[in-house]
Amino acid sequence: MMKVMPYVDILFGNETEAATFAKEQGFETDDIAEVARQAQSLPKVNKKRQRVVVFTQGKDDTVATVGEKVTMFPVLDIDQNDIVDTNGAGDAFVGGFLSELVQERPLEDCIRAGHYAANVIIRRVGCTFPEKPDFH
């Protein structure tokens, strides 16, 4: 993985993956925000574009970093009884995020779309979406 890291523009992961990455890289921290900051600052070939690091944490805030700035984004509130199946939530988050990124929307909008997509997925059996999503 470290052979390709210099070419990574956007790094996505969840809290478990972030903790494992930190341990393997000797970051000597279990603070997800600090792991994101250190992962963001790893060497990068394309200096024209800063690396973005995004770590989801289930019901806890999503951590995102661009440059030296680490931002915490609260996830959408959901009644725990409404959670049906968490399979695919991370992939849905990434899909939602990227759907805004390709439209050159700001990071906040990308995260909001990711949260929306993950929130929809966990309310349904399997990786399915309603016929007409209501993301605005």
Structure write-up:
- Helix 1 (15-25) crosses helix 2 (32-40) and helix 3 (89-101) runs antiparallel to helix 4.
- The chain contains 4 helices and 4 strands.
- It has helices at 15-25, 32-40, 89-101, 107-121, and strands at 10-14, 52-57, 60-66, 69-73.
- The protein has a 4-stranded mixed beta sheet with strand order 1-2-3-4, sandwiched between helices.
- The chain is α+β, with helices and mostly antiparallel strands and 136 residues long.
- It folds into 2 domains: 1-75, no CATH class; 76-136, no CATH class.
- The chain is globular.
- The mean pLDDT is 93.
- The chain is 35% helix and 17% strand.
Write the layout of secondary structure elements.
Layout: E1 10-14, H1 15-25, H2 32-40, E2 52-57, E3 60-66, E4 69-73, H3 89-101, H4 107-121
Stretches where pLDDT is under 50 for at least 5 consecutive residues are none
Distance, first to last CA: 36 Å
- Quickly count the helices: 4
Secondary structure: number of strands: 4
